[in-house]
Amino acid sequence: MNTINLNDLSPQEFLSQYWQKKPLLIRNAIKDFQDPISPDELAGLAMEEQIEARLVWQKDGQWQAEHGPFEDYDHLGDKDWSLLIQGTDHFDRDVAELIRPFRFMPNWRIDDVMVSFATPGGGVGPHVDNYDVFIIQGSGKRHWQVGSNEQLTEVVAHQALLHVEAFDPIIDVELLPGDMLYIPPGFPHQGVALEPSMSFSVGFRTTSKAHLFSALADHVIDNQLHTDMVIDPERQVTSSPGLIDKQDFAKLKQALLEVINDDDKLSDFFGSHLSQAKHELDIDEPETDYQTLDVREGLNQGQQLVRIGGLRSVYFDNEQSAGTIYINGEAFSADLALSDAIKLFADHTELSPEQLSPWLGNEQLFEFVCQLLNSGYWYLD
User: Fold this and answer.
1) pLDDT tens digit string along 322-347?
2) Which of 31, 58, 134, 227 lies deepest, with the highest CB count within 10 Å?
3) What is the mean pLDDT of residues 175-190?
4) Is the pLDDT of residue 60 over 90?
5) What is the distance between the alpha carbons of residues 59 and 29, in angstroms, rounded to a whole number?
6) At residue 117, does pLDDT exceed 70?
7) Domains and CATH numbers, the chain
8) The whole model's pTM is what?
């Protein structure tokens, strides 16, 4: 199991001093780091339709990019190209383990693990991300440069590649296996492989206010919420028909605030929206539905319950939401007596019979676990 050294900072010290403030170079962040996936295995994933794969390369000094799936790479030669796969943690359990040391962050902020293989000279060019990322160097070496978060001009290097103009680096290093860079949003950076190499980027993405409003509007419409009309029985005569006066402005604003201030419905929206996976999940529903007896026997035999990679699960600490967790956009509820038990399914990616022992006498626990197993979200290992 990997552990992360944050330059001898505690997670809270790191968050206070660096998170969304300034980049950080961490030498030997993971001791004796070994690639959790090989270049050949990565190329195998890139052949699948459901995988988000990209090739980025340079030809005659011009940037090129293409989306997968990919069958071969012979036409690219042995330098100046890179293969990148988003959401690799969804399909490889060992890659998903890279997220474990970062679980001091909430589930809804975790995006994915992007894995790249690059030949010498390979990279994606200088760019800016709108999310936080920890870049862990795997096998091989890469030269990384990170600039300050000053305003930079964006350049369309290719229809699928948005770059920024040249920047002065404040970090200029060669990363070795196990080294790590933390880069906050808005800081330009670029990495260039010095030899065939692997890189693992653990990304943390938030959301824009505009996107939240848009998603909330869709949620309200799709679920037919707040369908009552904005009424005005106290209407007074106006001498300015074109005017939206202060009273009408306040009434319309209040109508929107009533939607926002409905905490029960808003938490249901947040739970559904923020628990949805950003990439395709590797869901494998069982051929035959699990029954409670199957779960009981499995746990009695010491089997662990394991969550599939990339699955998001969240819950709230208000009384109205007790006994409910949200998994991949769905609400799953159980008896209030199991409230603490089902939180474990959001806080952990693996659960042992010992962790569930206080509730093994409650038949509803096994019914709840059956729901998760039959959805393909968890499995018995």
Assistant:
1) 889 999 999 999 988 999 999 999 99
2) 134
3) 97
4) no
5) 35
6) yes
7) 11-204 (2.60.120.650), 292-380 (3.40.366.30)
8) 0.92
Cα–Cα distance between 237 and 253 in angstroms, integer? 21
| Residue that is written with structure tokens 């997670």 in the block | 11
Q: Given the structure tokens 């404040």, which residue do they identify?
A: 170
The predicted pLDDT at position 1 comes to 63
From residue 158, give the alpha-carbon distance in Å to each of 163, 189, 305, 310.
Answer: 9, 18, 45, 30
Contact 227, 262 (CB under 8 A): no
Q: Which residues fall within 8 angstroms of residue 132, CB to CB, at 6 or more apart?
A: 19, 20, 182, 183, 184, 185, 203, 204, 205
Is residue 36 a contact partner of residue 92, using CB atoms and an 8 Å limit?
yes
The tokens of 162 are what?
């948005």
Q: Is 222 helix (H, G, I), strand (E, B) or coil?
A: helix
Quote the pLDDT of residue 298: 94
In angstroms, the CA 175 to CA 116 distance is: 14
Q: Tens of pLDDT along 262-297?
A: 999 999 999 999 999 988 899 989 999 999 999 999
The position carrying tokens 């969550």 is 307
Do residues 270 and 341 make contact, with C-beta atoms less than 8 angstroms apart?
no
Q: Which two tokens stand for residue 199?
A: 């890189």
Minimal CA–CA distance to 316: which of 285, 287, 339?
339
What lies within 8 Å, CB to CB, of 140 at 6+ separation is 118, 177, 193, 194, 195, 196, 197, 198
